[in-house]
C-alpha cells in the first residue's frame, strides 16, 4: 500500500464525516455504522455492523465449489467470480440491515495480504463506493481481522497470544493493540490449510460421497474421525529447530510419498479412492495438530519468559479457517491447560473468511480513530504483508527447549 494510514489528525473534513451517529432506524439507534467488505481469497463477504459489534446484516458468497471442481483456486476465475458477485453481496448486506449507504459512517475493506486479483476487486469496488457516498475508508489487514474477531464475542483485553492458521497463513503473534502485533513465528513455506487442501486433492476426496462439497480441511477432519492416526507415522516438522516458525511442505511430501506407495500396493491409479483414506486423514490431521501445538507451547514459554502476557487471565486466541478444526482445538487445549492460559476460538463461521470480521476490524479502528482515510485517498492492495514487528529471530535465539507434555489428543 502506498499510503501509511496512520491517525489523520488535522483532517477536519474527515472528522466531520466520522461524526455520523444515526438515530433514524430502530436497529441502528445512535451508533456509528460500518460496512465491511472481504475479497482477499475465494469468499466475497460483506456485513453491516454497529459500533457495539452487533451484526445488522451480512452476506457471503463462497467460491469453494467452483474451485473444488477445478482442483484449486485459479486467480483469474476467483477475480471473475468476485466481480460477478460483489455488488449483489454488498447490496444484500445493506438490505438485510435496513441501512442505506448514506447512514454508514465508514467502509472497511481487506487490502492485504491475499490474492492480487481478488484484493483488487474489493478495493476497486470500495473506493468507488466511498467516493460516490463520501464516506471514510478503512483499509484492513486480513490477518489483523482474523486476530481481532474474538473481541467481537468476548471481552478479551490486550495483550494476548494469537495463533492464526488458514489457507494462506500460519503465524504466532502477541496482539498488543488493534494495530500493534509482535510476530513470534510464521510459516517458512506453505500454510496448513493449503497443505490440507493439497492432500485432500491428491486423495481425490471430491469423489468421496461424504466429502464432495467440503473444503480440503473439512474433508480431512471428517474422515479422520473414523481413522487410525497411529497406522502411519509422519515426522512432525522442525523437531530440531527451537523457534516458533512453521513448515508444512515437507509433511506434504511425506504424505504424497505414502499415497503413491499405497496406490502401488493396492494396484490402483492416481485418482482412485484408497481403502486406507481415513487412516491417512487421521495421521495427517494429527501431525498438523502436533506441529501447531509444539510451536505454540514454545511461544507461550517465550511470552512468559519475556513478560509479554498479563499474569491475570493470560489468553491464547486460535483463529483462521483451520481453527474450525475440533481436533486441532483439542491439541491446543492441552497446551493451554498445561501452561495456565485460557483458550478462546471464535465459532467456525467466524474463523473462515467473512465480511463480519472486516466490519468488526473497522469498528475497532473507528473506536480508536486509527487508520481511517478520507474517501479520495488512493490506496493500493498488497498481496504480501507481514503482520506487525517480526521478532522471530529473537525467539530463535532464545532457543527454548520444550518440556515434554503428553499430547494425548482425544478423538
Ligand atoms: O481463513 P480461511 O477461510 O481463508 C484464508 O484466509 O485462507 O481458511 C481457509 C482454509 C482452507 O485451506 C480450508 O481447507 C481450511 O481453512 N479449513 C479447515 C477446516 N475448515 C476450513 N482446515 C481444517 N479443518 C477444518 N474444519
Ligand atoms: Zn482468512
UniProtKB/TrEMBL annotation:
Note the Gene3D superfamilies from the entry: 3.30.420.40
Q: Which reaction does it catalyse?
A: L-threonylcarbamoyladenylate + adenosine(37) in tRNA = N(6)-L-threonylcarbamoyladenosine(37) in tRNA + AMP + H(+)
Q: Its Enzyme Commission number?
A: 2.3.1.234
Subcellular localization: Mitochondrion
Q: Name one Pfam family in it.
A: TsaD
Q: What is this protein called?
A: N(6)-L-threonylcarbamoyladenine synthase
| Domain of life of the native organism | Eukaryota
Underlying gene: OSGEPL1
- For whether the record's keyword set contains Ubl conjugation, the answer is no
Summarizing the function annotation, the protein's role is: Required for the formation of a threonylcarbamoyl group on adenosine at position 37 (t(6)A37) in mitochondrial tRNAs that read codons beginning with adenine. Probably involved in the transfer of the threonylcarbamoyl moiety of threonylcarbamoyl-AMP (TC-AMP) to the N6 group of A37. Involved in mitochondrial genome maintenance.
Q: Where is the Gcp-like domain?
A: 54-360
InterPro entries the record matches: ATPase_NBD (IPR043129), Gcp-like_dom (IPR000905), KAE1/TsaD (IPR017861), TsaD (IPR022450)
Question: PANTHER family of this UniProt entry?
Answer: TRNA N6-ADENOSINE THREONYLCARBAMOYLTRANSFERASE, TRNA N6-ADENOSINE THREONYLCARBAMOYLTRANSFERASE, MITOCHONDRIAL
Query: What family is reported?
Result: Belongs to the KAE1 / TsaD family.
Cofactor(s) needed for function: a divalent metal cation
